[in-house]
Amino acid sequence: MPGIGFYNLGLIHMIGGLAKSATSLLRQLVDAGTLSNLPGGLKTRGLRIKGDDTPIMPGEFRDVDVPGGVIRDNITFLPYKEPSNVLYSLLGTIVEEGRRFASMADLKIDDMRQDAPVGTTLAILERAMKVQSAIQARIHASLKKEFKILARIIRDYTDPAYPYETEVDAQIKVSDFDDRVDVSPVSDPNAATMSQRLMQYQAALQLAAQAPGLYDLPLLHRQMMELIGIPNADKIVPSEDDGAPVDPVTENQNFLTMKPVKAFEWQDHQAHLNVHMTLKNDPQFGQEVQNTQLGGAKLAALDAHISEHLGFLFRSQIEEELGAPLPPMGEPLPADIEKRLSTLVSEAASQLLGKKQQQQEMERIQQQQQDPIIQQRQQEIDIRAAEVQRKQMADQQKMQLEQQKLAAKVQKDSADTQIAAERLALDEDVQEQKLDLEEAKLTLDAMD
């Protein structure tokens, strides 16, 4: 803290008085207890004790020459008191005030719950280590300044060239120690002690347990084992990069025994996926996941490996759709090539999606056709359709017959009408002929 004058105020200035007072009270309590247990006093000059130059042992009796009276009348003890309860209470108050001022409350790890939230644990740890963390941060900052001063001294007062051969110009030593280059300590200013760093790793493991697919669990466990000083952490927790390509059945065995498994680009990913999905859908494996403590970790490892094969399979499908191989994985690409490649990959991905959707629809239709229930329903539908078609044909034939009957009736009526009209016309002709005969007869009679 800023103080008056050149020097600042530190922790010793803030709690130095409390520490001095606590030390003084503690000494008084110890002295009072010592004098109370080994008291001194006065005795008469004529009182003689045999062997008075040696202390009296427990259970020992010695001869005493008393000039007169009883012994207690010739010996007087000084009034030493036992340690005072008031001083003891005052000592506890001063110590508590000092801890409260310095934020150094006792951290009882044994009293904490094992399933305590990560934030609560870190808050308690941070409160307990506040002073140590501040000191660590200040030392880290001052050491960084000292390293920068050393870098300037090396740059300005040593040989500008390295004393050994380098791949580039040896004069690069000056630029290596330039002001633009920062030399920082490798310590963590936010973690002053091993217990604090250990609590941080435990918090990371709790977060990893909630979403294991997002974390590199082997790396996290190896770093924690190295922190607590266990040798050969890389052999105890092997890395996936050390794994060799094996067949899918061996990979399933490695999942069950919690061994690292890695997918490779050249493998038959569809075959691996079929074998891994068989294990995932196995009822016995499902029971192990539910009933064992490591079942969740095994399932997470299996899902992560399946995702790797799916990624490689999608990459190979995109390459097949493009008709050309993609650039190697991890190789940096120029901006223009990456932009052009993204456009081509986007088009290929759209085409691939359309093909997959069409294939999925065909599989769905084929599956429905193979389903006995759907086949039975389809047969019922076909029978109903045939019955409806038969009824329609019968109704159509009946309608055609009715139409034929109606047409015959209409034709008959038309013929009858025509016959009647012809008969009427014939009758009219006969009548006219009769009239003509009568007129002719009347004319002949008149001529006679």
Instruction: Report the end-to-end length measured between terminal Cα atoms.
Output: 177 Å
Largest sheet: 2 strands, antiparallel
In sequence order, what are the helices and strands, one letter per element? HEEEEHHHHHHHHHHHHH
Strand arrangement within the widest β-sheet reads 1-4
List the total number of helices: 14
Computed CA radius of gyration, to the nearest angstrom = 56 Å
Number of strands: 4
User: What is the average of the pLDDT values?
Assistant: 79
How helical, in percent, are the residues? Answer: 55-70%
Q: From the helix content, strand content and strand pairing, which structural class follows?
A: mainly alpha
Q: What is the approximate shape?
A: elongated
Contiguous runs where pLDDT drops below 50 for at least 5 residues = none
Taken as a percent bin, the fraction of beta residues is: under 5%
Give a quick set of tags describing it.
two-stranded antiparallel ribbon, mainly alpha, 448 residues, elongated, single chain, 4 strands, 14 helices
